[in-house]
Amino acid sequence: MLRRILFAHNATPAAERALIYLEHLARVEEAEVVVLHVYEPLERYLAIPGYDELLEKLEMVAQEVVNDTVQYLQKAGLQAVGIVESDTSAARAILETARDEEVSLIVLGTRGPSKMADILLGEVSTEVLRHAPCPVFLVP
């Protein structure tokens, strides 16, 4: 039985496709959903005037992604909470959150089918698969 599901939402079409499966799984398993969005702080722009405003906007957009998803899931009758993290490694943030929140499953969207391979996984998906403390459900 799945108690808690971590949904790593990166605001891409792949994540939106994964949301459909996540909603179904959470409903069937009566699981709580932890919605996570990780944004990179873009420290390479630290010395540029306006960096603080840029960072505030990134945080605001990240929070909107999480809030919109949490509200969507709650309106669908599911329990959901949101977390926003700032990290230069999305995979590290996903793995740490999975451990900290003691989730039973991680749900990620992937790039999908590729001519070069059966499934082309991104860096984040590959890293999460290698080191996850629980099963990972990838949605192309």
- Total separate domains: 1
| Order of strands across the main sheet | 3-2-1-4-5
C-alpha termini separation: 24 Å
Total of DSSP H or I helical runs spanning 4+ residues: 4
CATH topology, by name, is Rossmann fold
* Extended strand count: 5
The helix-strand sequence is EHEHEHEHE
> Unreliable runs, pLDDT <50, ≥5 residues?
114-119
**What is the SS-derived class?**
alpha/beta
Shape: globular
What's the level 1 CATH class?
A: Alpha Beta
| CATH homologous group name | HUPs
Question: What is the CA-atom radius of gyration, in angstroms?
Answer: 15 Å
Mean pLDDT: 91
Percent helix among the residues?
Answer: 40-55%
Task: Please tell me about this protein's structure.
This protein is α/β, with parallel strands linked by helices and 140 residues long. The chain has one domain: 3-Layer(aba) Sandwich (Rossmann fold). The chain is built from four helices and five strands, in the order βαβαβαβαβ. The chain has a five-stranded parallel β-sheet with strand order 3-2-1-4-5, with helices on both faces. Strand 1 (4-8), helix 1 (13-29) and strand 2 (32-39) form a beta-alpha-beta unit. The model is unreliable at 114-119 (pLDDT under 50).
